[in-house]
Amino acid sequence: MGQTLTEKILDDHLVEGDLEPGEEIGIEIDQVLTQDTTGTLVWLQFEALGLDEVQTELAAQYCDHQTYQFDFKNTDDHRFLRSAAGTFGAYFSRPGNGICHNVHKENFAAPGKTLLGSDSHTPTPGGLGQLAIGSGGLDVAVAMGGGAYYIEMPEVVEVRLEGELPEWATAKDVILEMLRRLSVKGGVGKIFEYTGPGVESLSVPERTTITNMGTELGATSSIFPTDGNTRDWLERVGRPGDYEELTPDDTAEYHDFITI
């Protein structure tokens, strides 16, 4: 039996457990991100681990939520976050630099990598083939320390896109249709994997619009295969070397099937 794209990435990062729905698995995390609402606690928890530096390939601290400076509170938080990032070896994105999901997508996200973030919309980079999951601050701190991330193996649902978007329709309408059909709890315990001929007609920003709002379904994550559009987009942002061709096997079996 072949593997889904999700299973391929999980299998490459598996450190414990079996890829059977409902079973607990532990996976290695390549990248972590956090932001200024959740980041203060993440770094305090990381400090408590007693490590000199982050152990993941990459860690990034973004300041994009608490950008107003009416008093000293946010300013002090940002000073602490900048200091922690510099001390432990994480990238620091200053206030005004952009939203964490998009800045990370443009600068660091890569096909086939795992990303854990202390933000609910962390799955955004799934639009370029990265398996990205949002979680709690302690999970992110442990991952930064080199620990595995433990999760109940989700069901992988195929969302087959047929044809092209009609006039006046956008990628946002795809995920709104998913919400209409499934509701805000329809994705709990699931990863949505987008396939089909319609994928080719969507740019990476359009794909990440869909994966970003998978969170509104309650989904663990959402992901697209990579193709020429992915390669071209990575070239345009100056990272052609990060491209990797990733697709599900023809014989992959999914737990459910949706057509749009």
Helical content band? 25-40%
Q: What is the highest CATH level, the class?
A: Alpha Beta
CATH topology: Aconitase, domain 3
Q: Superfamily at the CATH H level?
A: Aconitase, domain 3
**Any idea what the radius of gyration is?**
18 Å
Tally of strands: 12
Strand order across the largest sheet: 5-4-3-6-7
Please, how many domains?
1
H and E order: HEEEHEHEHEEHEEHEHEHE
End-to-end separation in angstroms reads 25 Å
Shape: globular
Number of DSSP helices?
Answer: 8
> Please, what is the average pLDDT?
94
Percentage beta strand: 15-25%
Unreliable spans are none
SS-derived structural category? alpha/beta
Query: Which second-level CATH architecture applies?
Result: 2-Layer Sandwich
Largest beta sheet, briefly? 5 strands, parallel
Give an overview of the whole structure.
The strands form three sheets. The chain has a five-stranded parallel beta sheet, with helices on one face. The protein has a four-stranded parallel beta sheet with strand order 11-10-9-12. By secondary structure, it is of the alpha/beta class. The chain contains eight helices and twelve strands. It has helices at 5-13, 39-48, 72-88, 100-107, 137-144, 171-182, 204-212, 228-236; strands spanning 14-16, 24-27, 31-35, 58-62, 91-93, 114-117, 131-134, 149-152, 155-160, 190-195, 221-223, 256-259. It has one domain (5-259): Aconitase, domain 3, CATH 3.30.499.10. Helix 3 links the parallel strand 4 (58-62) and strand 5 (91-93).
